[in-house]
């Protein structure tokens, strides 16, 4: 099956979804108390710390998927909006709390919420977004809204399990590649799978469609995480919003690194020695570590795995019955998320 | 209207609710990843840090209210169980996160979860309980489960607003009594109001009943918080699980203190001076501060306010149509929560 993507601008699809979702997100924030709203709106990029208005942050991949999934079921995009808003809220709740746990002080080229407002207010802001997500989704005018709430919170539970595994990896030096992939599937794949199907759930779609889109979302979520792991080593600060080689600097057990460890051999051993240092790596050592990941085959393995996940995602779409333009946009999003849009 | 309470043992009512809810809570934990489940089960008192099994912690007031509210609507207690579990999960999510924000190292005579497992795992454990609450409630076999999810999360939003206000009070010396009461109504009243009505919502009760029980719950929630504030100054460590005079030690702007400030006069001024000290209060100063709260009328004001809330709660029950034994148990619980059960 050949899919033409040259006529479709992904940016347009994402921008259309953002146009639908951002006003709903802004409205949702109005329900919060002033103090918590301040932190949430800052984090979501609706204003700066001094109150200067901004357009909003984030590419809005999850909202775009949720809206497409409602359209896949033959419904209006509007039917998917509560799902899109809920997924974006859960995603941002997890970012707010992850930044605290990881002690990250920058995100999207701005200070993180906890660094600016303190930990307590950032914890509460995350709690508030998590709660708003279920509140708004439960209000969706659909006979399946309770089922949608169940799906969203089951995905949240898996996302939490993924973050718990990620935390545990920090103090272990025997993380297997399988564990690493399972962690990524949970931490990133679960909410992506939910986003790619939740609009269809609200549209009361046949279960084959909702399940097929869930599988598609799992694969693109994993592909996205693999590409993100590659960018964490080889991405530019402009693209990632983080310092160069940041994942190596923090000795993260990301997939390319664990794949390198797993391959064994002299490069893997040298990389293990650098990861075992009881001091920070020097700039030269960081560059060497990146080269060792490549030499041990960790980079190539991860690139191939991402390609495999992209292919699997596209395969999931094939048997599904949906309007052709919706299918094309799912394809374009999958290619973009797996770094294959250039 | 006279209600006989001498024949009813509150402990029996609470114990019956616990017997229904604890197995469901234990089952719910099985859905979590091992690492997160460990923290949640410790916090809920199902095991100690070394794995030794325990019966579970907490009196289970909210579950008892939720189950009663299903019975008020003429349904079986079982109908209220998902509501009871969800409210208990939200209550415990808030305790887990509040302990981090307040840097409290002891709760229920045991170390708090963050003190034992670290902040990151305690944040995740709270997130997991919040998510489980909506997941389980959404699964309730009731046509009104989505509405119940909406009610629960709206209450959670108010609870968060209350905690945000409480945090903000720490750095303000101009907190008014009205603000203080509004904070207590949000932080404690909102979830208590939800608990007292959520079983009725699941039972698809007439809106007068659900709304009346919500009002009842708001009043007993406030009464409970007022009594809790009194215990925070005059309670024994055995009863509160906290050191004596702990709220004064941390210079909490609890209702008795703010009522004392509000009354003005020499005792209030002396109390303000103690609260403004730039060092910890000595044991003698703590005792003096407690006496000054009494002298300024803060203790009597709070006791009267708690009595007023209890009376208002009982008044809310009067017009509501429900089985007599259920009504009696609501009365007994109200009296117990407002410290009038002796």
TrEMBL record, chains A, B:
<dbReference type="InterPro" id="IPR008949">
    <property type="entry name" value="Isoprenoid_synthase_dom_sf"/>
</dbReference>
<dbReference type="GO" id="GO:0046872">
    <property type="term" value="F:metal ion binding"/>
</dbReference>
<dbReference type="GO" id="GO:0004659">
    <property type="term" value="F:prenyltransferase activity"/>
</dbReference>
<dbReference type="InterPro" id="IPR000092">
    <property type="entry name" value="Polyprenyl_synt"/>
</dbReference>
<comment type="similarity">
    <text>Belongs to the FPP/GGPP synthase family.</text>
</comment>
<dbReference type="Pfam" id="PF00348">
    <property type="entry name" value="polyprenyl_synt"/>
</dbReference>
<keyword id="KW-0808">Transferase</keyword>
<dbReference type="GO" id="GO:0008299">
    <property type="term" value="P:isoprenoid biosynthetic process"/>
</dbReference>
<keyword id="KW-0479">Metal-binding</keyword>
<keyword id="KW-0460">Magnesium</keyword>
<dbReference type="InterPro" id="IPR033749">
    <property type="entry name" value="Polyprenyl_synt_CS"/>
</dbReference>
<protein>
    <submittedName>
        <fullName>Geranylgeranyl diphosphate synthase type I</fullName>
    </submittedName>
</protein>
């Amino acid at each position: 099956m050949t899919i033409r993507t040259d006529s479709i601008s992904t940016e347009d699809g994402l921008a259309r979804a953002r146009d639908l979702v951002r006003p709903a997100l802004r409205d949702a924030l109005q329900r919060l108390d002033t103090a918590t709203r301040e932190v949430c709106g800052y984090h979501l990029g609706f204003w700066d710390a001094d109150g200067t208005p901004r357009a909003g942050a984030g590419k809005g991949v999850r909202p775009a998927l949720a809206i497409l999934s409602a359209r896949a079921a033959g419904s209006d995009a509007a039917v998917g909006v509560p799902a899109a808003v809920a997924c974006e809220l859960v995603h941002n709740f997890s970012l707010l709390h992850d930044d605290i746990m990881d002690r990250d002080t920058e995100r999207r080229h701005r200070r993180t919420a906890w660094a600016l407002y303190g930990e307590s207010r950032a914890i509460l802001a995350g709690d508030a977004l998590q709660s708003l997500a279920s509140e708004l989704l439960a209000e969706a005018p659909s006979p399946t809204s309770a089922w949608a709430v169940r799906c969203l919170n089951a995905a949240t539970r898996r996302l939490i399990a993924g973050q718990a595994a990620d935390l545990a990896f920090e103090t272990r030096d025997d993380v297997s590649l399988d564990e690493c992939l399972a962690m990524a599937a949970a931490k990133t794949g679960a909410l992506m799978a939910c986003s790619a199907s939740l609009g269809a759930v609200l549209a009361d779609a046949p279960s084959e469609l909702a399940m097929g889109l869930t599988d598609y979302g799992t694969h693109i979520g994993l592909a996205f995480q693999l590409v993100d792991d590659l960018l964490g080593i080889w991405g530019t600060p402009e693209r990632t919003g983080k310092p160069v080689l940041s994942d190596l600097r923090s000795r993260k057990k990301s997939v390319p690194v664990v794949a390198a460890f797993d391959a064994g051999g002299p490069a893997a051993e040298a990389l293990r020695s650098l990861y075992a240092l009881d001091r920070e790596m020097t700039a030269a050592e960081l560059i060497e570590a990146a080269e060792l990941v490549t030499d041990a085959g960790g980079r190539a393995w991860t690139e191939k795995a991402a390609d495999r996940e992209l292919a699997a995602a596209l395969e999931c779409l094939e048997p599904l019955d949906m309007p052709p333009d919706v299918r094309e946009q799912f394809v374009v999003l999958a290619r973009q998320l797996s770094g294959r849009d250039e």
